[in-house]
Design a protein that fits this description.
Strand order of the largest sheet: 2-1-3-6-5-4
Helix content: 25-40%
Number of strands: 6
CATH topology: Molybdenum Cofactor Biosythetic Enzyme, Chain A
Radius of gyration: 15 Å
Shape: globular
Distance between the termini: 28 Å
Strand content: 15-25%
CATH superfamily: MoaB/Mog-like domain
Order of helices and strands: EHHEHEHEHEEHH
Number of domains: 1
């Protein structure tokens, strides 16, 4: 069982001025990989708060999925907060999400989402849009269990059968 924290970053959402559609969508999608959401929070776009939560969650769960704050608006600071707390980047995850997103909209190239490892936790930034969250998760969901196994120290071979 993969344990998960979902963190929605939204000034309006944190004030109750907008319902969070992306956080619940993430929670539902995670059922496909037998993951259990242990924590769910909605925070404002404040880098110090985001960093604090990422550090806290990284000690308690295997996977942290953020949604929101990955664009170009002045308050979008999720990637910066993530970069400041991770030990190692996993650039292929963000690259795959952007690559697939470009098939649907040219705006996908504006995403600044990052992914990385802090301790034994994988952190992945997702966009804030529910449709973009769904599309991005479709690209990465199947590799998450393998990534978590490797982060936890699994030493088995990574080659595909027949390689």
């Amino acid at each position: 069982m993969i344990t998960v924290a979902v963190l929605t970053l939204s000034d309006k959402g944190s004030k109750g001025e907008r319902a969070d559609a992306s956080g619940p969508l993430i929670q539902d999608a995670l059922k496909a990989i037998n993951a259990e959401v242990k924590f769910y929070d909605v925070l404002p776009d404040e880098k110090a708060l985001i960093k604090k939560k990422l550090i806290e969650y990284s000690k308690k769960v295997d996977l942290i999925l953020t949604t929101g704050g990955t664009g170009l608006s002045p308050r979008d600071v999720t990637p910066e907060a993530t970069m400041e707390v991770i030990d190692r980047q996993v650039p292929g995850i963000a690259e795959a999400m952007r690559s697939e997103g470009l098939r649907k909209t040219r705006r996908a190239m504006l995403s600044r989402a990052v992914a990385g490892v802090r301790g034994k936790a994988l952190i992945i930034n997702l966009p804030g849009s529910p449709m973009a969250v769904k599309e991005n998760l479709a690209v990465i969901l199947e590799v998450i269990p393998h990534a978590i196994e490797k982060i936890k120290g699994d030493l088995s071979e990574c080659a595909r059968p027949g390689d």
